[in-house]
Amino acid sequence: MSRRTMVEAIRDALDISMQRDERVVVFGEDVGYFGGVFRCTQGLQQKFGASRCFDTPISELGIVGAAVGMAAYGLRPCVEIQFADYMYPAYDQIVSEAARLRYRSNGQFTAPLVVRMPTGGGIFGGQTHSQSPEALFTHVAGLKTVVPSNPHDAKGLLIAAIEDNDPVIFLEPKRLYNGPFDGHHDRPVTPWAKHPQGEVPDGHYTVPLGKAAIRRAGSAVTVLAYGTMVYVAEAAATETDIDAEIVDLRTLLPYDLETIAASVEKTGRCVVVHEATMTSGFGAELSALVQENCFYHLEAPVVRVTGWDTPYPHAQEWDYFPGPARVGRALKAAMEA
Amino acid sequence: MTDPRPLSFHVPAPAVRPGGIPDFSDVPIARAGEVRRPEVDTAPEDIRDLAYTIIRVLDRQSEAVGPWAGLLGDDELIAGLRHMMTLRAFDARMQMAQRQGKTSFYMQHTGEEAVSCAFRTALEPGDMNFPTYRQAGLLIAGGYPMLDMMCQIYSNELDPLKGRQLPVMYSSREHGFFSISGNLATQYIQAVGWAMASAMRRDTRIAAGWIGDGSTAESDFHAALVFASTYKAPVVLNIVNNQWAISTFQGIARGGSGTFAARGLGFGIPALRVDGNDYLAVHAVAKWAVERARRNLGPTLVEYVTYRVGAHSTSDDPSAYRPKTESDAWPLGDPVLRLKNHLIRRGVWSEERHKQGEAEIMASVIAVQKEAESHGTLHSGPHPSARDMFEGVYEETPPHLRRQRQQGGI
After folding, report:
1. In angstroms, rounded to a whole number, what is the distance separating the alpha carbons of residues B112 and B110?
2. How far is A30 from chain B (nearest CA, A)?
3. H/E element, A12
4. In what order do the strands lie in the sheet with B128-130?
C-alpha cells in the first residue's frame, strides 16, 4: 500500500497489466519515449520495449483502427487519445467497428481493447481540451464506459477494463490527476498524498466494472455523480449541511441500477450532477431510470446540475463549470420541493 | 496591380453519360508482357513507374507473356477458372433469389471475379483478409462452404451470423476472412493493425486490406497508409478500381493524382498497378506483394484496374448514370473469357469442356441453394430467433439488456 496520484495509479495499472500479459500493448500520441503529455505511460517503453509501448502518428482514427485490428489478431491494446476532445476522428472506429465486432461476427472476432482519454475541464483548456463526451459512448450498444474518481479506483478499474473481453472507454477526469478537486478553483487542492482515496494497494487488484460506490452515506437526498463531480457534490453537501448520500457511479455503462435505486428509495430525492452539457446527457438517462424505477418513492422532482449547453468556454470556465454553489442550490431545491 | 480574374470551380465528369458512345481509346494500357518485374526488395523509389502503368500477362492471342508469366501450372489455372465460374454462377442465383424476394439485398462481382479469386491463391493458411463486400472470391477460392454463404444471405436458421448482418457481409476467421463492416474503408487500417500485431508478436502471418476506388477518399485509407509506412507493416493494401462508386465515376475520388496506385508513392510504399481482369497478372502481382510482406520488407499498394459490369447492388440501376454499352467497350475484356481462352490456347481446355463445366457448376450451385432454402429464406421458413438479437452484444449480457429482453417478452 502506498499513496499515489491518479497518474501514478494509472501508470501502475498499465505496468502491472503489461507484466502479467504480454498481449497488452500501449500506444498513442507522445505515449512512447516521452511517456504521454500527462505522464501516464512514463517509463513503459524503457521497461517493455518499443514493440509494447510506442508513439503513433497524429491520427486518432489510425490509433483506434489499428487497435481494432490488433485486438482481432489476439492482442489487448490499451490506447491513449491525448484529450477526449480529440476522439471524434476515431468515433467511427469505436462505434461502427470496435463496439459491433463481436455482435456482427457472432463472436468469431472480438475487440478487447481499452481507449483511455483525459476528460473534463477545470484547467483552462478551452473548448478543445475540456469536453466530457461520455454520453456519446453510453449511447452505443457494445461499449462499456468507465469514469474513475480516485487513484484507488482508477488502478483497479483500468486493470479490470484491460482484462475485460469487450471494448471499454476509460475516461480520466484530468482535473483529478493530482488531487480531489472540489470545484473551489480559488483554493489549493489537497494532493492525493494527503487523501485516503490516494491510498493504492501495490500489485494486482481489480475494481469490478458495473458497480457503483457510496462515497458519503446520507439520508436526505441522493446525489448521482461520477469523476470530478463526486468531490464537488461532497463540498456542496458539507457547505449546505444537507445530509446527502453521494453515489459515485464509477461505471456509466453497464450502470449499477441496484445501488442507484436503493439509495433513491431510501432518501426519496435525487440530484444528478455532471460536467457535460445537459441536453441528451447521461443525466437524462439517470433521471429517466430514477423515474422508471423509484417513482413511488420520490418526494420531489429529480434535479439535474450540468454544464450549460454551450461549447466549453475559456475565460468563462468557472461560470460554465457546475461548482459547489450550483450543486448546493440544487440540493436545497430538491429538499424544498 | 491588375484586377484579379474570377476563379472557376472544377468538378470532374466522366467522358460519357447515358446516350453517349463509350470510348476508352484514351486510356493508356501497356502491352501484355511489357512491364518489368523488379526484385521484391527493390527500393520503392526505383519502381515509381509501376504505379502509372498496367502489369499484364495475357495478350490478345491469349498467350501468357513477359516476366510476370509462368507462375501457375495447368491444374492451378483450371482451378482458378472454376473458382471464377463458380462465383459467377453463385452471383446469378443469388441475384435472382433477391429478385424473387428470398433476401433483401445482394451484390454481384461480374467482371471482377479474377481479383479476389486469384489473390486468394497467393496467401497461406493463417493470413487474414480485411475485405469489402465485393471479394467473395476469397471465400470461394479459399474453400469456405457455399452453403454457409447462402444461409448468411438468406438470414436463415443456419446463418453463421444469426441474422444480424446484411446479406453478403460474411465473416470467417477460419478462412482468413475478417467480418465485413459495410462501412467503407474502416477495415483498411484494421488490416494494418492486424499486420502490426503479427510483427510485434514475431509471427509469420500477414494481412491483406481491401478498398474500392471511391472509398480511397476516406481518412481511413490515409491513416492506413501512414501507419503501414511508419511501422513497415507486413500487409498488402489492395485497391479495386472498378471505375464506379455507385453512380460516381472514379475521377471524383482520384482527383489529380493520375492513378490510385500513385497514392502510395508519397508514403514510400511500393505501388503496382495491374490488369484486374487478367487472372495470371493478378496472381503474379499478389505473389510479389505477399512475398514482400512475408520477408518483412513492408507494405505494398496494389491497384487492380477492372470494371464493375453489374449494378453496385440490387438497389442500384446503372443505366441512370452510364451507357449500357460501356462494359462491352471496356478494353480489358472479361476475366472468365480471357482465362478460358488462355487454357484453350494451352491445349488443356475446350469450348465443350467449358460448356460442360458451366453446366456442372450451375447444377451444384443450384443443389446447394435448394439445401440452403430448406433451412429458410428471409421471409419464410426457419430463421434466427429474436433472442439471438440480444446475444453477443457483450461477452456477458449486462443487466439493462436482460431487462429489455424481458420487457420485450423475448
Report:
1. 6
2. 15
3. helix A6-20
4. B128-130, B207-212, B235-241, B300-305, B271-275
Name the burial class of residue B1, with classes exposed (0-12), middle (13-18) and buried (19+) by CB atoms within 10 angstroms of its CB. Answer: exposed
Tell me yes or no: is domain A213-336 CATH 3.40.50.920.
yes
Say which residue the cell 462491352 belongs to.
B328
Quick one: CA dihedral B293, A46, A60, B183, positive or negative? positive
Mean pLDDT, residues B3-7 taken together: 93
| Nearest residue of chain A to residue B198 (CA atoms) | A73
> Which one of B189, B192, B385, B405 would you mutate to disrupt binding with A, by most A Cβ within 10 Å of its Cβ?
B189
- The domain made up of A2-200 has a fold known as Rossmann fold (3.40.50)
C-beta neighbour count of B27 within 10 angstroms: 12
Q: For chain B, which domains are there? A: 44-379 (3.40.50.970), 385-410 (no CATH)
Q: Find the mean pLDDT for residues B306-319.
A: 96
Subunit contact A66:B189, Cβ cutoff 8 A: yes
Cβ burial, residue B335 (10 Å; 0-12/13-18/19+): buried
Task: Summarize pLDDT for A159-169 with one digit per residue, the tens.
Answer: 999 999 999 99
Residues 6+ positions from B75 with CB-CB distance below 8 Å: none
pLDDT tens digits along A125-172:
999 999 999 999 999 999 999 999 999 999 999 999 999 999 999 999
Q: With cut-offs at 50, 70 and 90, classify the pLDDT of residue B1.
A: low
Look up residue A191 and give its DSSP letter. Answer: P
Show the cell assigned to A241.
Answer: 449541511
Q: Is the CB of B200 less than 8 angstroms away from the CB of A69? A: no
pLDDT, one tens digit per residue, over A305-331 is 999 999 999 999 999 999 999 999 999
CB contacts of A161 in chain B (<8 Å) are none
Q: Work out the average pLDDT over A255-280.
A: 98
Compute the nearest-CA separation of A51 from chain B (Å).
Answer: 6
Tell me the mean pLDDT in the region B239-266. 96
Residue boundaries of the structural domains of chain A: 2-200, 213-336
Would the CB atoms of B186 and A65 count as touching at under 8 Å?
yes
Mutate to test the interface with A, among B161, B162, B190 (most CBs of A within 10 A): B190
Q: Which three cell numbers stand for residue A269?
A: 430525492
Tell me, yes or no, if A195 is annotated catalytic.
Answer: no
A88 with A61: CB under 8 angstroms? Answer: no
- Give the tens place of pLDDT for each residue, A220-258: 999 999 999 999 999 999 999 999 999 999 999 999 999
Query: In this predicted structure, what is the pLDDT of residue B3?
Result: 87
Q: Do B198 and A73 touch (CB under 8 A)?
A: yes
Phi, psi at residue B159, to the nearest 5°? -55, 120
Domains A2-200 and A213-336 share a fold: yes
* Chain B contact set for A255 (CB, 8 A): 400
The answer to whether the CB atoms of A108 and B173 lie below 8 A apart is: yes
